[in-house]
Recover the amino acids of this structure.
RNA sequence: GCCCCCAUAGUCUAGCGGCCCAGGACGUCACCCUUUCAAGGUGAAGAUCGCGGGUUCGAAUCCCGCUGGGGGUACCA
């Protein structure tokens, strides 16, 4: 890959003044605050790509900036200017899942801040004022073209194989016409008067300069006919008003950057620094969509992924520290993240690797106590524990779950597997046995029956709390029966758990408890007798 | 079509001119451990560094072209 900057031109943290001519005193501004923003649109669930962008923003402001002794602020702004695509509850959902993810914001719609309000629908006067200022200065104009005309225009252009785009029909309308149309109340939008000559250079922090010929840039709509601003206007006005120093956003925004730069120029404002984060692609290529699996943070949460595992995975999708270290706690990321080490090439989302991280955190990082707590909502949902125990660490159901969680810790990949994998520890009665599972390969039902009957006889006098002792007794029993240990253990395992896979047999029986073990072995014997009596299955 | 971005194993990546006939991780396979399944341990396969030209004593690393992949092309963000 190409590194955009040589070692001499690479700054530790880039300054907005990069957009001006490179100035030697740039180092003098090193203590200027780093203010970044994450600006989701409340149109649905939070996409993992958006979450990663939010993460990188947050790490820049709270990690890298503070290490460089610069003031850092992570601002959350809601871009709800599309009244048609607005989804009720989406904003609350995004805030909630961002909090679950582990990010904290210094300013935002819920916590306020010095540059509020942080919801664009509450700032419309600002945008109108800004747009009208540009109109007054001759840098923007009213456009009365109907959506139908624009639609027709695009169709004609594509039929003639011309690049689609607005034909600037209203750009030079006589002032009297404009005044008359407005007086008449004709619906209109305000468009930006893009310079027709020259070039605009976007200095992307990860890619270096990207040059655009201004002729290829469009007269974009700034203010829609419903009075709401488009993304372009709102974004520039707000980033200025909120003193945003660095814009970290998805790569899909690169084509709009020159337009935004021209807007800053028209307003006479110095633009912030830009860094476009690489896209996250789907396994087969293209955008990550439902077809490939989960795409939203909400789904990953529901599937039992831990926020710290997801954060670790997402951070490493596009960023690396030394190419070798894989496990990063949130604090590690704050300590080590640098924007310079974000890789500009797009990455493919790998569900298997995410699952590995999740399993790693469950198996090696969470304490049994912590795992228990996180399992509770999933177990309650499945009806295996009292819902009251989800929030109550002292609830007796916690004590029932903890030993089971301890045994399953190395086997769980996601929390959502909890109900299935811990179920037999938490229920009184097992579902009916699958007789085939009770009889291991190379053994007959009759042999197993004999073995289990022997087990049933010795079980009441075995002390299951002493695992070593009970293991010794059962091994001795296997010898007496002329069986290998495994041949005896498997039927017992199936009898007490209902399945062929479980933690070690003796720790499993200890946690299930003597009473239930006895009952389950008896029921397994009954099930086996029923099978043995049926000639069809013998 | 036009504009733009990207390009090291199936995937995520290290690599900033010699230490690289390319290192780590996921996945895959084998073996060890073992009462099952995991976890853990050991090892293996897997990359003509997309292709072609340059520059250089020397290129995965710099330059150009090509190809491929991706993004944008709305009164959506």
């Amino acid at each position: 890959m190409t590194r955009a900057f040589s070692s001499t031109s690479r700054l530790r943290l880039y300054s907005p003044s990069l957009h001006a001519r490179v100035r030697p005193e740039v180092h003098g501004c090193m203590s200027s605050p780093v203010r970044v923003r994450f600006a989701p649109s409340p149109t649905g669930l939070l996409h993992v790509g958006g979450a990663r962008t939010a993460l990188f923003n947050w790490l820049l402001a709270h990690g890298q900036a503070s290490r460089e002794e610069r003031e850092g602020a992570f601002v959350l702004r809601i871009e709800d200017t599309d009244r048609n695509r607005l989804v009720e509850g989406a904003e609350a959902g995004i805030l909630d899942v961002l909090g679950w993810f582990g990010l904290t914001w210094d300013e935002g719609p819920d916590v306020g801040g010095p540059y509020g309000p942080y919801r664009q629908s509450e700032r419309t006067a600002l945008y109108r004022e800004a747009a009208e200022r540009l109109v007054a200065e001759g840098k923007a104009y009213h456009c009365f073209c109907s959506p139908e005309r624009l639609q027709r225009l695009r169709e004609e252009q594509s039929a003639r194989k011309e690049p689609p785009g607005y034909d600037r029909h209203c750009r030079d309308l006589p002032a009297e016409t404009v005044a008359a149309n407005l007086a008449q109340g004709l619906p209109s939008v305000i468009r930006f008067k893009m310079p027709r000559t020259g070039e605009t250079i976007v200095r992307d922090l990860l890619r270096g300069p990207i040059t655009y010929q201004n002729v290829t840039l469009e007269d974009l709509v700034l203010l829609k006919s419903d009075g709401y601003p488009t993304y372009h206007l709102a974004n520039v006005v707000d980033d200025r008003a909120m003193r945003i120093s660095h814009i970290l956003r998805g790569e899909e925004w690169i084509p709009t950057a020159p337009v935004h730069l021209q807007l800053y120029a028209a307003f006479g404002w110095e633009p912030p620094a830009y860094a476009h984060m690489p896209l996250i692609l789907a396994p087969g290529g293209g955008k990550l969509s439902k077809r490939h699996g989960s795409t939203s943070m909400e789904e990953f949460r529901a599937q039992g992924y831990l926020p710290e595992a997801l954060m670790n995975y997402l951070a490493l999708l596009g960023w690396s520290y030394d190419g070798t270290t894989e496990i990063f706690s949130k604090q590690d990321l704050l300590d080590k993240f640098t924007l310079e080490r974000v890789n500009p090439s797009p990455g493919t989302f790998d569900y298997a690797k995410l699952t590995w991280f999740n399993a790693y955190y469950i198996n090696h990082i969470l304490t049994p106590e912590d795992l228990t707590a996180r399992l509770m909502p999933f177990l309650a949902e499945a009806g295996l524990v009292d819902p009251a125990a989800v929030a109550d660490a002292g609830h007796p159901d916690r004590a029932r779950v903890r030993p089971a969680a301890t045994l399953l810790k190395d086997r769980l990949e996601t929390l959502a597997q909890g109900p299935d994998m811990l179920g037999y520890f938490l229920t009184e009665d097992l579902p009916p046995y699958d007789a085939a599972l009770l009889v291991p390969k190379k053994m007959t039902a009759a042999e197993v029956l004999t073995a289990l009957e022997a087990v049933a006889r010795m079980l009441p006098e075995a002390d299951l709390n002493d695992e070593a002792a009970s293991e010794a007794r059962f091994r001795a029993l296997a010898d007496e029966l002329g069986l290998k240990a495994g041949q005896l253990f498997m039927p017992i395992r199936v009898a007490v758990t209902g399945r062929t896979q479980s933690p070690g047999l003796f720790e499993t029986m200890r946690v299930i408890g003597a009473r239930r073990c006895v009952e389950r072995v008896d029921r397994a014997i009954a099930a086996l007798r029923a099978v043995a009596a049926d000639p069809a299955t013998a």
In short: Confidence is low (pLDDT under 50) at residues 1-29 of chain A. The domain at 435-533 of chain A is CATH 1.10.10.350 (Arc Repressor Mutant, subunit A). The first strand of chain A starts at residue 34 and ends at 38.
